[in-house]
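Marked as duplicate of an earlier ticket. Keeping the data here for the record.
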Amino acid sequence: MNTLIIQKKWLIPLYLISFVLILSSCGNTSKVSNSSNSENKQTHKLTIMLDWYPNAVHSFLYAAEQNGYFQEEGLDVEIQMPADTNDALKLVAANQVDLALSYQPQVLMARSEKIPVRSIAAIVRHPLNHLMVPQSGDIQSPKDLTGKQIGYSSIPLYEAMIRTMIQNDGGDPNASKLIDVGFDLIPAIATGQVDAIIGGFINHEQLILEKEGHPVHSFNPTDFGVPDYYELVLVASEQGVQNSESYFKKFLSAITKGQQFVQDNPEKALKLLLAHEDATSPLDKEIEEKSMEILLPLMNAGDQNFGYQEPTSWEKVRQWLSDNDLLSTDIKAEDAFINL
């Protein structure tokens, strides 16, 4: 299964987005098509691009599709998988797809590069990306990584996260060595090439390591100075929000029903997901079951509607990114999201 793991990228080459924007003509991809129901009602076409191959976190989409929630809202939704993990935000920014799944820090960094994208919903409300160390080792907290080797995929955001965690815990981040292991996070820590990894997800890499006999301790970055951020958000372009707000509201209504179905019927939802697994990235049922258990509480908005975004969250993340020189220009947090 290791060879199928694709590292989730936080930073995308934003100059490529700008290039696509130049090539893109105006207008989004929404259009009207005829449905196949007996009344032959007209439906509005929307496209959404996933952030990765289909897995447990996307179950709400397939539940909404298979249970007819999109159709009830008058929508014909096409779910697309990216050919590359960088594609989703790039294509929604260029209005080549209507919606995309991305990450809160990534949206803010794109905004700082004048890329016109906005988050319209928080899907996973807390970090999945944790610092991981072998259970059999002597590292009890981030400060113990002083003088140790940490594997990552040469992403500045991860550098900022690990530095914040070590320093907040009383260690010296300058005494730690970051090793670029590319996509090979799991073998790097399993073979002892590094003492820790940052960039592994608790609902994926940690579960695989455990299954393969390499259990790890994971440290939540929010316990060590990194602001609590939305791991997954639903993104549209500025133009899309202006032109398709009513349809996006219908989409949010449908996925809210989808997420409620997942919460109430996790086993049935998993079956719907497994029916849509990509041939190039087959799913491990046991891993996805455990992933679902981890994800459900992290996707729960409590008394708020599914997808609700806290303004304070966006401001705290914006400030932390700015303090760590990850924003190229000064931006306003309120411009990066909207609650429809």
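See parent ticket for discussion. The chain is about 35% helix and 20% strand.
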